[in-house]
Write a structure and sequence with these properties.
The protein folds into two domains: 227 residues, no CATH class; 169 residues, no CATH class. Helices cover 5% and strands 44% of the residues. The N and C termini lie far apart (110 Å). The chain has a 17-stranded parallel beta sheet that branches. The chain has a 14-stranded parallel beta sheet with strand order 4-7-10-13-16-19-22-25-27-30-33-36-39-42. Strands 29-32-35-38-41 form a five-stranded parallel beta sheet, with no helix packed on it. By secondary structure, it is mostly beta strands. Strand 1, helix 2 and strand 2 form a beta-alpha-beta unit.
Length: 470
């Protein structure tokens, strides 16, 4: 190297030393914390997110740091804003994974425990909620899907205190816990609890082809004054695995409300949800969800479909599903109107309603294979099943120990013509007529290899009673 070049490099090498001596460090905009960033609301240090010691104390700071692609959050309470702007949410981002459930000392993701170390995202901006009161200042949506895809991850949090109550500004009347508009994030190990909406989706509102992936997620004690206490899906098809919907409330669809949607549910339970009108557990309108290994238990509604209500050409597919202990005015387990669900390996047990305790069908033709109706009780008609202007197809179906005033096992009315193949009626009872089956007004079922045994009726037709039918 010649002498001239040596002098130039020597001068350049002095520049950073002089800057440091003058008190200038590296520019802060060039020193992002990521890709792994830390958040702990009790952290000391310099709070730049580079370690647990120097963790950000505000989750929004980490989300806003463009260098953070994986964010670890210690147990604590985190709010979307320290101010009073109800429009502010935790906005998910593609390529960013946010994990909760840490104590603040872990070095491996697998060391966290999101159950023991509850990490809460709260919309209660003032911290003064008492149930669903004192929440007028709460965030409209605690979390927003932000148009993301499956590369946006939220994992290990409790989401509570969202209050979507803006009657004049859609969608701020929906999705108190989470709003997902055209989004498909990956959501795991989450609990949506104590969120509310004026209209739709107290826990979560999915619209415009939102297809989030939800695993090990619980929706509990959420409320919608209108539809979908736990979740509301509009033209959206989320995938849920190992999900629980419990103690949610709404006018209809207290656990889940679907309109023009086809969610897929596996290993999911609906328990103790309460609706004023229809669908204590689930309500479907022009929707065809797929349910595998799903349980509906102890759900209630004042009107139709304690476990599930299907309206308007809804044709869900159910495999290995159980309806037990559900209550309604019509259709304790399931109510179908102009809908034809497909049921395989399904059990209806100990459901109650004045009519159609297990299943109530209106202008519907469901297909049932390997289905059992047992111990369902109706005070009026159809302990196991009630059909009006309906023609379900039953194959390998058992009606056992159901009871009603008329039609202990099944009641067919007004041109209902079910097809029964390999069906057994045993131990069913009627206080009046038709211990096993009652057919009335041009109802003409077709029976092939059907067994009636030990059924009883106080008046006539211990096995089958026909009136104006053949």
């Amino acid at each position: 190297m010649n002498a001239k070049l040596q002098r130039i490099f020597a001068r350049l090498s002095i520049v950073p030393i002089v800057l440091l001596l003058l008190g200038f460090g590296a520019p802060t905009w060039a020193e992002a914390a990521g890709p792994l960033c830390y958040v702990n609301d009790n952290a000391g240090g310099i709070n730049n997110g580079t370690s647990w010691t120097d963790a950000y104390t505000d989750l929004q700071s980490a989300v806003g740091d463009t260098g953070c692609t994986e964010i670890w959050v210690a147990a604590g309470m985190y709010r979307p804003t320290a101010g009073a702007d109800r429009l502010v949410s935790f906005m998910l981002k593609n390529g960013v994974s946010i994990y909760g459930g840490f104590t603040g000392t872990e070095t491996q993701l697998e060391q966290r425990d999101w159950v023991l170390n509850e990490t809460t995202l709260s919309g209660d901006l003032n911290g003064d909620d008492v149930g669903f009161t004192n929440n007028g200042e709460n965030s409209y949506h605690v979390v927003n899907g932000g148009g993301t895809d499956s590369n946006a991850v939220l994992d290990g949090f409790t989401i509570r205190g969202g209050n979507a109550d803006n009657a004049s500004s859609f969608p701020h009347n929906a999705g108190g816990g989470m709003l997902s508009d055209g989004s498909g994030p990956t959501l795991a190990n989450l609990t949506f609890n104590g969120n509310t909406a004026l209209n739709y989706g107290g826990g979560m509102f999915n619209l415009n082809s939102s297809n989030p992936l939800l695993t090990n997620v619980t929706f509990s004690s959420n409320h919608a004054a209108d539809l979908g206490g736990g979740m509301y899906n509009s033209s959206s098809s989320p995938t849920l695995t190992d999900a629980t919907f419990s103690n949610n409330t709404a006018l209809s669809g207290s656990g889940m409300y679907n309109i023009s949607s086809s969610p897929a549910l596996t290993n999911t339970s609906f328990n103790g949800n309460t609706a004023t009108n229809y669908g204590g557990g689930m309500y479907n309108s022009a929707s065809s969800p797929t349910l595998t290994s799903v349980t509906f238990s102890d759900n209630t509604t004042t009107n139709y479909g304690g476990g599930m209500s299907n309206f308007g050409n809804s044709n869900p597919t159910l495999t290995s599903v159980t309806f037990s202990g559900n209550t309604a005015d019509l259709g304790g387990g399931m109510y179908n109107s102009a809908s034809s669900p497909t049921l395989t390996d399904v059990t209806f047990s100990s459901n109650t309603a004045p009519s159609g305790s297990g299943m109530y069908n209106v202008s519907s033709s469901p297909a049932l294979t390997n289905v059992t109706f047992s111990g369902n009780t109706a005070t009026n008609y159809g302990g196991g099943m009630y059909n009006i202007d309906s023609s379900p197809a039953l194959t390998n179906v058992t009606f056992n120990a159901n009871s009603a005033s008329n039609g202990g096992g099944a009641y067919n009315y007004s041109a209902s013509n079910p097809t029964l193949m390999n069906v057994t009626f045993s131990g069913n009872t009627a206080a009046n007529y038709g211990g096993g089956m009652y057919n009335y007004v041009n109802s003409n079922p077709a029976l092939l290899n059907v067994i009636f045994s030990t059924n009883g009726a106080s008046n006539n037709g211990g096995g089958m009673y026909n009136r104006d039918s053949s």
